[in-house]
Amino acid sequence: MDLVVLQSRLDNLAFSVLFVTMLIYWGGAAFPRIPYLATLGTLGMASANLCIAALLIARWLDAGYFPLSNLYESLFFLAWGITAIHMIAENMSQSRLVGVATAPIAMGITAFAALTLPPEMQASAPLVPALKSNWLMMHVSVMMLSYAALMVGSLLAIAFLIVTRAQNVELRGSSLGNGSYRLRRAEEKLIPLSTVATTAQQASVATIADNNGGVKTAVLERASTQPPQNTTLPLSPQRLNLAETLDNVSYRIIGLGFPLLTIGIIAGAVWANEAWGSYWSWDPKETWALITWLVFAAYLHARITKGWQGRKPAILAATGFVIVWVCYLGVNLLGKGLHSYGWFF
């Protein structure tokens, strides 16, 4: 079979498998008592990972270089990285909710690459002179893997916010999840209704006794027996356990992606010096890579040094999810630069 035809079939197959897998994960979340859905979802993600790997290998053999030179190839490499990181995260968490978050993203990426990009952008082309280097595999592959890990970790942080209903849920103990969760009451003390009623009765008796003396006039105050308003409703133990797992796995996956991002940026600086004579030129891609690094450095610093846990770091990671997309795709679509080989406007 012609390698070009094989690539076309594999990218459509990967999209189809991921679409069905997404439905399986969503169905499993909606109907958790249906057996084997979690296993089918895992098999679907593994199958999609193998399809994309076969596509990239066929592309490599056909073009003669590592397939990361244009937007089509990098999108499929990103989808492969997300499915691979998904397998790690799901094994760590033992929760199908990981697939509920990651399968739509992987499916959307493959759909955009296979169904939206024009044929001329999907076809392989000779490398531009700047890309004819061994640094292509080193720099770009590490950067794409870091994007995949940071995206998965950020998606789990978003899932944490959804599970906890964005309440101020805090992890007590280690950032690795050795503690348990509690809900902050924001300086509110919940008094049992029986105690309120007893206090009201005592106040009434004392006031009546004082009135019988005929010396002073007192005003009776009615004590409210209504429960306190605007209090945070406690989460169920199952939801708290799931939140703890998501927080823990999100932290670990981001902790995996951040060193990869650091290595990728350093490798890119060395390659830039060889290709353009400067380690850093403040190209839009380089600038947003630095912004991405700073956001996730702040996330890890806040968790490790400042002791942030729960909602605050999850919001920071969710912000990082948007920043990663701007760094990876937004710069290529909205502006030209030394890195904008995938720009098509």
Q: What topology, given as strand order, has the largest sheet? A: 1-2
Q: Approximately how much helix is present in the residues?
A: 55-70%
Strand content: under 5%
Specify the overall morphology.
flat
List keywords for this structure.
single chain, 345 residues, mainly alpha, two-stranded antiparallel ribbon, 10 helices, 2 strands, disordered C terminus
Concise summary:
The protein has helices spanning about 5-30, 35-65, 70-95, 95-115, 120, 135-165, 195-210, 235-275, 285-305, 310-335; strands spanning about 170, 180-185. By secondary structure, the chain is mainly α.
Please tell me about this protein's structure.
- By secondary structure, the protein is mainly α.
- The chain has one domain (3-118, 135-167, 241-334).
- Helix content is 68%, strand content 2%.
- It contains 10 helices and 2 strands, in the order H-H-H-H-H-H-E-E-H-H-H-H.
- The protein has helices spanning 3-30, 37-63, 71-93, 97-116, 119-122, 135-163, 193-212, 237-276, 284-304, 311-334; strands at residues 169-172, 180-183.
- It has a two-stranded antiparallel ribbon with strand order 1-2.
- Helix 3 (71-93) packs antiparallel against helix 8 (237-276) and helix 9 packs antiparallel against helix 10.
- The longest helix has 40 residues, at 237-276.
- The chain is flat, with a radius of gyration of 27 Å.
- It starts with a helix and ends in an 11-residue tail after the last helix.
- The relative contact order is 0.11.
Could you outline the blueprint of secondary structure elements for this entry?
Elements (H helix, E strand, L loop, with lengths): L2 H28 L6 H27 L7 H23 L3 H20 L2 H4 L12 H29 L5 E4 L7 E4 L9 H20 L24 H40 L7 H21 L6 H24 L11
Antiparallel strand pairs: 1-2
Helix pairs in contact: 1-2, 1-4, 2-3, 3-4, 3-6, 3-8, 4-6, 6-8, 6-10, 8-9, 9-10
